[in-house]
Amino acid sequence: MFIRVIFTTLLLGSAIMLQLRDSSFQNFPIQVLYGLIIFVFFLSFIYSVLIKWVKRYELLAYTQISVDTFVVTMIILVTGSFSSIFSFLYLLVIIYSSILLYRKGSLIIAALCSIQYGVLVTLEYYGILKPLGAESEIIILHNDWSYVLYKIIITMVACFAVAFLSSLLSERERRTKKELRTMEDHFKRVEKLAAIGEMAAGLAHEIKNPLASLSGSIQILRQEVRYDPVHDKLMQIVLRETDRLSSLVGDFLMFAKPPAGKSLPLELERVVQETVSLFEKGKACQDCICITKDYLSGIWVNMDPMHLRQVLWNLLLNAAEAIENQGEIHIRIYLQKDDFAVVEIFDTGCGMAAEQIQSIFDPFYTTKPNGTGLGLSIVHSILKSYESRLDVESEKNEGSKMILRIKKIEPPT
To answer: pTM of the prediction?
Structure first.
């Protein structure tokens, strides 16, 4: 909005100065130019008030840019209509519409500019709209309709060409920014989890040894001490909780230092299909979750099969637990341009807010009543050793998408 005010003021101010210094421009009504400047300033004030109250910025952007096209049409009318040199301003409006509204919006604005210019020149040619200035009237009257139509068509083609090209560049720039932001988040996560992992490895080992001693001692006492129902029940509780702690410490060790797996060439579709088939038969689905598949065959990766199955199982389990009552999980396998195989797991569950996404890879962070908060941390640690990564896209009440990227290899011969 600020740049619009500055640009319009300079452009129209220079036109006014030209009229004042050159007597050949005296036929143009200078009051209209002043009126346009005042109108743009008034609109900018209205926009600055509305932007604090409007929640749908896209609608406000459409409104502003559409009004800009009418302002440009008025500038063209004031500065000579058919002979005006300011028709290029339509292209400027289309370029910044592609930045704010992307391809669909820029094409709509291009159509709006084309219609306005075509109607303006057509009405001028047939004398319905009198041009402002005798010189422009002479110019258009000395040209036949074929030349006028040619200029209209050229202007329309230019509008749509600029809309397409600028929106293409804008979308590429937006996609690149998104990828860079994702990579930045990934590296920050790697650094944070690496520091936690070093501490966790030593702590887990220190806990695991006393747990093993405690469990073994209780089992010996249970065998040698005279049977007593109350004492036996207490020993069973101790053993059960010891096993639970041992399992938790095992998960913690898996997160801190995943065991080195034996990497093998794997056909991604086959491993995913086997894991999903097994998952569909488990309690997590319970006939209330529909799993749809879209697999691209012939993609091979180099990974330990047990690690890959564990990663897929954790992601499927997270997706199922995010769904209340009934829902869907969609699994898709495809290739990226940068030689990465991608497995997307999208669920129609409760979704996550932005602050939750920042914490889901932290150890022991969980929103589930019975969860340990180590599932995604383990997945992240496993993938790190294979130069792969997991990205998450989610919105509250809109579901979540887990994007698993694994280095692709050539099929074995």
So the answer is: 0.52
